[in-house]
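ESCALATION

Customer reports they have been waiting on this structure for their group meeting. Please prioritize. Original submission:
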Amino acid sequence: MTGLLPEGFHDRLPPAADAAARLEARVLGHARLYGYEQVDPPLAEFADELATRLKAGGVRDAVRFIDPVSQRTLAIRPDLTAQVGRIAATRMGHHPRPVRLCYAGQVLRLSGSELDPQRAMRQIGCELIGLDSVAAATEIVQVAIEALHAAGLTGLALDFTLPDLVDTLAAGKLDAGTLETLRDRLDAKDAAGVAAIDRRYLPLIEAAGPFDTAIAKLRSIDAGNALASRLEGLTAIAASLRGQVALTLDPTERHGFEYQSWLGFSLFAQGLRSEIGRGGTYSVVHGDGREEPAVGFSLYADPVLNAGLGTAERTRLFLPVGTAPEIGAALRAQGWVTVAALEPGDTPQAQLCSHVLRDGEPAAL
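Update from on-call: job pushed to the front of the queue and completed.
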């Protein structure tokens, strides 16, 4: 027995597993203060249900298999958002809107990437279903920022994007093939390539950076009323976050925002090179084809924990052999984590304790 795991999978050992549980509890606990109630979808469900619940979402990177009972294709969730959308559209379809739901659970990707080889991850998030207004988006972003602060993260940064911006500006002006080429060149920040299609889209490359500068450049684009409402909404959301988080804007960023509509955002924290979460507005598709607006965010615990963030000092109190049970109970009632010696040769060091009970009082080692 070698203990090897498949590529992209990992065990989380103590105290890291304790830190993961604590991070999850703090994020969800803060979400509950805003009225978000927890749901717990199953690990796998019918693939066609997952594929149709989010407009333009599909089921990308999902592990699929045939259910021996129903003989239908099942998918292990690569993301929890579609499942929450299904719950809101079916089991909670009668619930007054908007419905506020939060969740946490393991997700599984079919494959990792060179930059992020992990395939199994812990996802935590909130979804507000029934609205995608500025007020709804402001609440979701605020909950995400405050929850991360409550979990002990500092130096937060938020990068906004406008996922349907290019489609909106190019509507009726470019054919589908040219539009896709334009999107690719904007993603690559290929100014010459963009200019070869239409120089009017060049300001979209320049409008990336600190929020105030970037939004001013976007406002200078002559797009009639196509941009006005989006920019006003984005400015209002940003104004609500002043002083809490660093703000940037990359208006044409599309990676990871395949099903978002007018707004998307990525979350970053000091000390981490990659994003720790993302969110935005989207549509939940009902069984009759009706589309319902929604907005939400998802956080990934693994980058935070792998960087040693969101952790707390391990405090354990060693109880020598013969300590009366009522003494241990009283100490646990005070909040101490107690580890009782089960044989005379046991030591605080062997049990990874930071304190030992001496003369009836905890003493630091």
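Sent to customer with the following note: The chain is about 30% helix and 20% strand.
Escalation resolved.
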